[in-house]
Design a protein that fits this description.
The protein has 512 residues and is an alpha/beta fold. It has helices at 8-21, 28-40, 45-56, 59-64, 93-103, 112-117, 128-135, 157-166, 187-197, 213-224, 239-246, 283-291, 310-323, 349-352, 376-385, 408-417, 431-434, 440-444, 465-475, 494-510, and strands spanning 71-75, 83-87, 108-110, 124-126, 149-154, 173-178, 203-208, 231-237, 253-258, 275-280, 299-304, 331-336, 346-347, 363-367, 371-372, 391-394, 423-425, 454-456, 481-483.
Length: 512
C-alpha cells in the first residue's frame, strides 16, 4: 500500500469523498464501503469508523452494538409504527464500555420520536428507561462527549435530567421543542444554563406551544450571553436582546416574533444577516423594525395577524425599498391576516412599485389580506422588473371583490419576459379567450413557456372550460397541473369549482 495512505489526513479526505460521491438518498453504498474499510484494514480502521459514525452514527445504533440479550425491539403501538428499543436486563460495566467506544464517535443526536412527528421515516425508537440507565452509568462524563448537534423534545422533568447529561461544550447546534402541557419547574433554570454549558453554540432553536413570560425572559438572557450564533429560531424577543443580536458579526439567520411596542433605541445593523423571518402582531411594528435595518438580506419573510389596509402595506413596501439591499434580496414573503369583507381594501401597481426595485428577486409570495388589482400593463412592469423570477404567488388564499384585470395577453407577455418561471399563482380574466372562436391561435402562435410546471389561477372566473383548457394547453406545454381555489362545498363557489375541475381534466387530456 502506498505510504501516503497511512497519513490520517489523507485517509480522512478520501473516506469523506466516499460519502459525498454517493448521491443516493439513504447512502447505503457509502455506509457499506466505510464499514468494509474499517473491518478489512487495521490502518484504515479508526478513520473509517470516524467518518461512518460522524455521518450515520445514532444513539440507537450504538445501543444495538451492545450484547443482544441487553436490549430488544418491540413494535411500538404508536402511529409511528417503529421498533422501540427496550431494556431486557441490568446494564453492566462491560456493556457500558462497549457503548462508550461507539458513543465517542457520535456527532448528531435526534430522538426517533421527534423525527417521526416531523414526518421523517425512522424505524427505531428508544425507551426512556433505557436512556435513563445509560445516562446514570457515569455521572462525571457526558453521555455523548463529542456531540455537536442535538434535537430534543421536553415533556416533563425527566427529559430535563436526560438532556443535561447529553449537552456538552462541543455542542454547536441545539434544537429544543417544549411540548410540556403542565409547567416544568426547572425549565427556566435549564434554559438559563444553556449559554455556560454550550459556549460554542452557533445554532439555537426553541419552539414551544406556549412560552411563558418567564421562559421568554430566560431565552432572551441566554441569547445575550452567546457570542458565536449564526442561526436563531425562537419566540418573542425584547428590544435589549435585539440590540445585542444586531451587533453579532456571525449572525446569518433570524426567525422570531416581534414583541408589541418594542423600544428600539438604536439602529439595528444586522450587517451579515441573510435570512430574516419576523412575526409581528401589527404591521406598524414590522414597519418600525424594518426601517431601523441596514442589511444585505437574501431571504425576508414577514407575517402579521393584523387586519391591515392597503395604505399600511404600501408604507411597509416603501420602508423595505430603503432598508434592504436591492442587489441581495432573492426571496420575499409577506403574509397578512384577511380584512373583514365589510371594509374592502386594494393594492394597485403604484403601491407595489417600491418592490420593483428588487430586480434580482427569484421568489415572491404575497398573501396580503386585501385585493391586488393588476392589469396587463402592470403584468408587463412586474415581468420586466423581476426577469429572474422562479416562483410568483399573489393572494393564493383570498377571494376579493376586486378581481384582477390581467388578460391572457398580459399572461403571455409576463411569461415571455420571465423565462425561468416554474410556479405561478395569479388571477386571470379569461373572458378574452372565451369570447373568441378559435382566433386566439393566430395571436398565440408559438409563444409557449418551457419551464412553468405549476399554474394556480386562484379565484379566476370561468365560463367555457373547453376554450380555456385549449388555450392553456397550447401556451403551457410543460405545466403538470392547473390549480384553483374555488371550493366545491360552498354554494356560491360550486359553479366555478366544477368548471375549473372540467378545465383541468381537459387540460391533462390535451397534453397526452
Amino acid at each position: 500500500m502506498a505510504h501516503c495512505l497511512f497519513i490520517s489526513e489523507i485517509q480522512l479526505s478520501v473516506f469523506y469523498w466516499i460519502f459525498v460521491l454517493d448521491t443516493s438518498h439513504e447512502k447505503h453504498t457509502a455506509q457499506a464501503t466505510l464499514a468494509a474499510l474499517a473491518r478489512t484494514c487495521n490502518a484504515f480502521h479508526d478513520i473509517a469508523l470516524d467518518v461512518l459514525w460522524q455521518q450515520f452514527g445514532t444513539i440507537a445504533r450504538a445501543i444495538q452494538c451492545m450484547p443482544h440479550d441487553l436490549w430488544g425491539g418491540d413494535m411500538n403501538k404508536s402511529q409511528s409504527g417503529c421498533i422501540c428499543l427496550k431494556l431486557h436486563r441490568h446494564l453492566t460495566k462491560d456493556d457500558w464500555n462497549i457503548f462508550r467506544r461507539y458513543a465517542l464517535r457520535i456527532r448528531h443526536l435526534s430522538l426517533a420520536t421527534q423525527d417521526v412527528r416531523r414526518g421523517k421515516t425512522l424505524m427505531v425508537d428508544i425507551d426512556d428507561e433505557l436512556l435513563a440507565c445509560l445516562a446514570s452509568m457515569d455521572p462525571t462524563q457526558p453521555l455523548l462527549p463529542n456531540l455537536t448537534s442535538l434535537e430534543w423534545i421536553i415533556y416533563d422533568e425527566r427529559d430535563l435530567r436526560l438532556i443535561r447529561r447529553i449537552m456538552t461544550k462541543s455542542l454547536t447546534s441545539l434544537i429544543l421543542e417544549v411540548w410540556a402541557i403542565s409547567p416544568v419547574p426547572d425549565l427556566q433554570q435549564f434554559i438559563s444554563s444553556v449559554a455556560p454549558t454550550c459556549p460554542s453554540l452557533r445554532k439555537l432553536v426553541v419552539h414551544s406551544v406556549a412560552l411563558s413570560s418567564h421562559l421568554r425572559y430566560s431565552v432572551s438572557q441566554t441569547l445575550c450571553h452567546l457570542h458565536h450564533l449564526t442561526t436563531i429560531h425562537c419566540g418573542v424577543l425584547d428590544g435589549e436582546v435585539m440590540d445585542h443580536l444586531s451587533r453579532l458579526p456571525s449572525l446569518l439567520e433570524l426567525k422570531f416574533a416581534l414583541q408589541p411596542n418594542s423600544g428600539f433605541q438604536n439602529e439595528l445593523l444586522f450587517e451579515q444577516l441573510q435570512v430574516l423571518d419576523v412575526h409581528a402582531q401589527d404591521i406598524t411594528s414590522a414597519v418600525d423594525f424594518v426601517s431601523r435595518m441596514r442589511n444585505k438580506l437574501i431571504n425576508l419573510s414577514i407575517f402579521s395577524d393584523d387586519h391591515t389596509g392597503a395604505s399600511a402595506l404600501a408604507q411597509l413596501f416603501r420602508r423595505l425599498s430603503t432598508s434592504v439591499s436591492h442587489c441581495s434580496l432573492r426571496h420575499l414573503q409577506i403574509m397578512v391576516a384577511e380584512r373583514p369583507h365589510d371594509s374592502p381594501s386594494v393594492l394597485n401597481l403604484d403601491d407595489l412599485h417600491p418592490l420593483l426595485s428588487f430586480n434580482r428577486l427569484t421568489h415572491v409570495h404575497l398573501d396580503v389580506g386585501c385585493g391586488i388589482s393588476l392589469d396587463d400593463v402592470a403584468a408587463l412592469e412586474l415581468a420586466q422588473a423581476w426577469p429572474n423570477i422562479i416562483q410568483l404567488m399573489l393572494n393564493k388564499f383570498l377571494e376579493t371583490p376586486f378581481p384582477s384585470s390581467i388578460s391572457p395577453i398580459g399572461l403571455m407577455c409576463f411569461l415571455k419576459h420571465c423565462p425561468n418561471l416554474m410556479e405561478l399563482t395569479l388571477e386571470i380574466d379569461f373572458s378574452f379567450v372565451e369570447e373568441q372562436d378559435d382566433q386566439w391561435h393566430y395571436w398565440v402562435g408559438d409563444a409557449t413557456h418551457r419551464y412553468l410546471s405549476v399554474f394556480d389561477v386562484t379565484y379566476s372566473k370561468i365560463h367555457d372550460a373547453a376554450k380555456v383548457a385549449a388555450f392553456l394547453s397550447c401556451v403551457l406545454p410543460r405545466t403538470a397541473q392547473v390549480l384553483y381555489s374555488w371550493i366545491h362545498a360552498l354554494d356560491d363557489q360550486r359553479e366555478y369549482a366544477e368548471r375549473w375541475n372540467e378545465a383541468s381534466r381537459l387540460f391533462r387530456r390535451m397534453k397526452k
